Hints:
Layout: H1 7-10, H2 18-41, H3 50-53, H4 77-90
Amino acid sequence: xxxxxxxxxxxxxxxxxVAEQEEMNAGADLLNAVIAERAAAHGxxxxxxxxxFTGHGANADDPWLHALTGVPFHPNDAGYDAxxxxxxxxVKPGQLRR
Length: 98
């Protein structure tokens, strides 16, 4: 999961202060750590999109997540492109299961 907010560039959003946004972003980091650990425990690779989305949270100048339009806090077209690029980069054709 990406961090939902870019408090460093976007400021407050939807009554969430910068400190609250940072806490929610920390929650996304924790969620990613748990998912990565469980994926590894079952032989799967976790693809982390956090860095790709840095600076593109819902309140950024160039957001890759919807804030008040579309489905809130879900990717917009640019966000889906970033997810696709991350997954494509992680695919190792020789390791694909048949």
